[in-house]
Design brief:
alpha+beta, 5-stranded antiparallel beta sheet, 24 helices, extended, kinase activity, transferase, AarF/ABC1/UbiB kinase family protein, UbiB_kinase
Length: about 675
Amino acid sequence: MALPAQLFVWLVTLLMIIGLATAAQRLLGVRFGRLRTFVAALMAFGLAQPVLSPILAGMGEVEPDQVPEAGALGMLLLLAMCVVLIPMVILVLAEALVPPGSVPGPLELFRSLRGRLSRARRYSQITRIAIRHGLGPYLRGRGEQVDDRSGKVRLAASLRAALDDGGVTFVKLGQVLSTRRDLLPAEFVDELGRLQDQAAPAPWSEIEPVLAAGLGGPVEEVFAEFGRTPLAAASVGQVHTARLHTGESVVVKVQRPGIGAVVAKDLDIVRRLAATLEDRTRWGGALGLRDLAEGFAAAVGEELDFRVEAANMAAVAASGGGCVTYPAPHTAMCTERVLVMQRLSGRPVTTAPREQGPDLARGLLDCLLRQILVEGVFHADPHPGNLMLLDDGTLGLLDFGSVGRLDASMRSALQRFLLAMNRQDPLGVTDALLEVVPRPEDIDEAALQRALGQFMARHLGPGTDSVQMFTDLFRIVSAYGLSIPPEVAAVFRALATLEGTLVRLSPGFDLIGEARAFAGRYLAERVSPETVKESLTQELAALLPMLRRLPRRVERIASAAEHGRFSMNVRLLADERDRRYVTGLLHQVLLTVLGATAGVMAVILLGIGGGPPVLGSTSLFHLLGYNLLVIAAILVLRVLAVIFRRPRSSDGPRGSGEHSAYPNGSRGR
């Protein structure tokens, strides 16, 4: 019988704690976490007797038969409010000292610890890779400076091998660096260029299960022929040749096994590093490294899904390729980790004859500029490893895991930017640039205009060199604190990559002259009679409804003004958010006044001597004073709870504190 009685006591105690927690949260008017509220109520339940005992002792000895009914009721009310007051104080102190989210919960703490251990293992793995390839001294900043060419070649080879062993994320880094001749010596650029088409392939024993799972059956049943030796290997996957049962030659791109978990760890490291640099460095905040890291992470995530690449391939092909050919995907056979597409017959573009280089570079530049400025769907990673010289002498563009997209307004702003650059108009270039990127509040437009004028004089004047043009433009944008949206960053990166590719295709290529020629052709297309007629028709169709209503509205306004009935109505607090904000503010003021009034009345009653005794030496005035003092404390705590609570949504008045959000429309790598 002792066990049921003890169980009943525990159940009653639990219900009392839950009731105490509910009452404290309702009186504070703020939602707290369940665990935090329960712990506060549990602590209050344990502290109730030590806290209330001195209060009861101060009231003197009381005989049960001497307690009037009013005194018993007041005493009961005082004790109940004191018990509820304890968890309220604990919750408000916790809100002020330990805000929600500042200390992780048990589950979050376990996940964080597991994530830290996982990242530590990855850091250790990366360090071991660097040391194995002889790069350990350079990680510690003690590496010797290498001046001779043979030493640079050996160091570049070690760096390339280390990046290759590091995995997808580091291979991508090497690919980007291989196009930056303005940053790295030629030995490093040439060596890192091998990462684009000479990554170590995965063995067939690891690739075959991925193919069978993606294709839904054995490779021998799906294809008439399949080459087990890969045609090429890249950072994300490797390409095999195959032939369908219809006789068509195809290439099959299969994802490397097990890269998903490694990429997730690397991207987590990239995000944390970007957040640290943005918070602790001025240049990191100016560049918006968090957004760039998120864009890179989203891009890599999409690149791991070959269905996205197949859709990108179809979208770019639909925009028109001009003199560039795109492989057609076999959509029905494409899965998340397997991509089947048309095989283009050709060889690496780096083997193109020198005399053919200018024509290939001109066609590639025209194709990419048209994709960016006209179609709005562009290949965001045009490095040499993604290009082929086809048997018919044209270019073939591969690897559509990296595709950017621009909406009509962004394309229009970029078009104005290009045309103003063509005219060498600093004012027009500045205005167009501030339409492309968000305009800061404290930007010095005159200084920006002068910087852009100097930039154009350096790169666009007669006989000037266009090397590092896009790099210098990016530096100007960063120096003036312009936060680049992800889709524009993808454009800049694609153009910077294209710059390095064009130099490899045709050394000395006149990038400025060809870009101006494209601008002239595009401008001629825009001012042709057909396009002008179409634009006027569209504008007139949009204006006609407004023009039809305009005379009647003007007549009504003139008539009202003539007869003295013209008036204007302004609706204050018409927005629900404004009303909610003002109402909450009035509530806080009212609670503060009531709490202060109750406190003053409590002090006055406690200072009054005499009065009818109700509990030992305690008079009725003192009992009322104690109750009012507790009520004042509850009201003040309710106000403090709202003050200490960190804002979680923009419920304030409209126009104050609103933040801009930029669409992550690009998928550039």
